[in-house]
């Protein structure tokens, strides 16, 4: 891995480099995606069937588009019992963590008869997109479904592209069933997003669509935003490790690689105060890359977006971490908690040398769907809040309105909204 | 107002009718907006100055783009003291309500050395767009700035188009200053949104952009979503009143008109169990329209999107209200609280006959920036949450990781992510 001493110029270059990976830069696919969306919106299932034939080489119709109970049972026979057990253990942790996120409705009554409040209600129907293809991630199925489940969403509708045999990957099906998907449809790509956003004869319209996907899926989600809600548009994965001389270089190297292996756009950055650690990590990375199965991806992503940054002190490390706003941030220093309190921007923060990033991907409980590519400056991990929405509550008595009614009339008249003023006036006309 | 007995067919037509007002249907402007954005992204201030000259007929440069302290002081001289006093009173209520929304960071420690948590951090920089032109709404300035202020946003950057004299409306300036805007720039339209999203020499890049605007502003916000966060794309205003025979028809009529006056796309719907009330409200509406100053707008919006719907009972009224998911919902029935508990979808809910909608627009405290056009099914009122984001916290001890480390390895290997598995393995190699 290349090692650089950080300065303003190198930091700027690095930030620009990382942001190049943004899915927002793939506008050239927009037209194709918009055509698919328009088609599905207009023709419903007919278009969904045609695109599935074109892109997945599978003949769908109203009788086989939805995964049946039998197909789910069949999947259980195909998945190792040991994996099913792990999925169940992980789900308990994921459920427990997300239950702590739940916000309650609240009301506040004042003696003069004013009641103000906030009502929190789950979304009714949610669509969860699950990618197909070579890389199958049942953990991602759990992470997308469980917060909706904890929120109290009535209907969780999953879509995922079928394989050429017309079947859905059994690991995906078992994970979906364990997490609590209510309906599963064998549709992928932009056509799935369009079907969820507008509804078709077979697939119900939802209120919100979540879940990762390729560039077509990401652009389709962006296009239907407003008609429905969406989660944030996910970019390539990334890890940033802040480490001092107390860190174990072998652990740090292994953790950097755990994200670098995702794909060629993945980024792994070590920010360290210790030149010695930098050297040791660099050596360990080389040794691991030589033996790990995803060697080619690792080499490319490290070449493109792997950095070891030397900083003069932890304050500078914290500044760099806040500027990069990494999806995953590990803090492996003498006192990780103190460092953490100064972190403003990160998707998930892992503290200490036994909190390796994959622990969060699979097991600890917090969501692994995290803001990428600098968006941790303004987006949050997927959570229960994403599946609930609020309504304000306002209740005034006559006695409470009377002393302020002229203020409201004044304000409305200043905005030339005379019917607004009138609605207050009529209540106090004699 | 037209009165119809509701049935499935009429309900479907009505819903389709209302959704036609969606800002998502104005795709024809997209190209023009995208050109402005690309230009500002590439050329910065130069493009901002050129578009301001083109659209606002104002010559901007680096010396006059930002509103000065002197201009703010001048604005105070131009605004009635009485209005300033009302703004200050309203701000106290708005601040108090939003302070109740603030979520805290939390941590949860388990005896085996597991610490999980959620850190809540304010966004650093937020852009607030304020429309210019004929309709000036200082209340909207308060509602957009105050939740960001309560969240603890460090820098609130406002942009608003200048008048032909190169000045910003004094009511807008006073409201912005009272609410706590840190910097104000005289830029409007898609060029303002682009400047906030990407930064220019004069205007800082922000993390999130909020605030209403015309179709160009709405489309520009949608286009920059992902580079920055945005609030929901606002549509035309609307009110739905659920009323039974106990309601005062004069109050109900006045409240319907308070939203119908906004613009020709505004919608006002009464859903009532009482034919007598329907008739009385219809009559009162006619009488009010004849004397109110915004008669022409009122007539058009009522013609297009005004309805009195007769339902057989309150349950049906609640169903209709949940399907329409109105921005504003008034419940004027014998027992409004019981009805409210059954409401799933609404931006703000007003209970009882003295809680008229304009009370919420100006004074009660809850935000008046609300989801419109059916989006209350998945969006929330603007609030403190919109200006804060979360990071998950994960800290495991060696003792906590040991008993589950094989589970994580199993899961990672099932996903063929061998570097993920490796990062757990290295911690327990002998």
TrEMBL record, chains A, B:
The keyword Oxidoreductase applies. It is an enzyme of class 1 (oxidoreductase). GO terms for biological process: L-histidine biosynthetic process. Residues 62-89 form a coiled coil. It catalyses: L-histidinol + 2 NAD(+) + H2O = L-histidine + 2 NADH + 3 H(+). Catalyzes the sequential NAD-dependent oxidations of L-histidinol to L-histidinaldehyde and then to L-histidine. This is Histidinol dehydrogenase. It comes from Candidatus Galacturonatibacter soehngenii. The gene is hisD.
């Amino acid at each position: 891995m290349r090692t650089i001493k950080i300065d303003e110029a190198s930091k700027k270059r690095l930030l620009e480099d990382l942001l190049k990976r943004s899915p927002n830069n793939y506008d050239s696919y927009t037209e194709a995606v918009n055509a698919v969306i328009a088609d599905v919106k207009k023709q419903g299932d007919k278009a969904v069937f045609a695109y599935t034939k074109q892109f997945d080489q599978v003949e769908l119709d109203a009788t086989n588009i939805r995964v049946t109970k039998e197909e789910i049972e069949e999947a259980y026979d195909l998945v190792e019992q040991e994996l099913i057990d792990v999925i169940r253990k992980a789900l308990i942790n994921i459920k427990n963590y997300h239950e702590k996120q739940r916000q309650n409705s609240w009301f506040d009554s004042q003696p003069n008869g004013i009641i103000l409040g906030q009502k929190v209600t789950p979304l009714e129907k949610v669509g969860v997109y699950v990618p197909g293809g070579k890389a199958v991630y049942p953990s991602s199925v759990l992470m997308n479904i469980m917060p909706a489940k904890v929120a109290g969403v009535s209907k969780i509708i999953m879509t995922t592209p079928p394989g050429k045999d017309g079947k859905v990957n059994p690991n995906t099906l078992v994970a979906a069933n364990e997490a609590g998907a209510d309906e599963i449809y064998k549709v992928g790509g932009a056509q799935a997003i369009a079907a969820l956003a507008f509804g078709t004869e077979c697939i119900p319209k939802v209120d919100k669509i979540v879940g990762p996907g390729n560039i077509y899926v990401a652009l389709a989600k962006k296009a239907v935003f407003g008609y429905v809600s969406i989660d944030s548009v996910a970019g390539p994965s990334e890890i940033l490790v802040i480490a001092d001389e107390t860190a174990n270089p072998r652990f740090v190297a292994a953790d950097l690689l755990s994200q670098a292996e995702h794909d060629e756009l993945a980024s792994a950055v070590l920010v360290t105060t210790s030149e010695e650690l930098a050297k040791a990590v660099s050596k360990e990375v080389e040794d691991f890359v030589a033996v790990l199965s995803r060697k080619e991806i690792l080499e490319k992503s490290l070449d493109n977006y792997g950095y070891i940054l030397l900083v003069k002190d932890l304050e500078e490390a914290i500044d760099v971490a806040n500027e990069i706003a990494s999806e995953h941030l590990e803090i492996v220093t003498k006192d990780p908690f103190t460092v953490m309190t100064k972190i403003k921007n990160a998707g998930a923060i892992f503290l200490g040398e036994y909190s390796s990033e994959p622990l969060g991907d699979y097991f600890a409980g917090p969501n692994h769907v995290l803001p990428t590519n600098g968006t941790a400056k303004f987006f949050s991990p997927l959570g229960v809040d994403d599946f609930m929405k609020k309504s304000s509550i306002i209740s005034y008595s006559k006695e409470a309105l009377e002393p302020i009614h002229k203020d409201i009339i004044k304000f409305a008249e200043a905005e030339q909204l005379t019917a607004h003023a009138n609605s207050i006036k009529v209540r106090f006309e004699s």
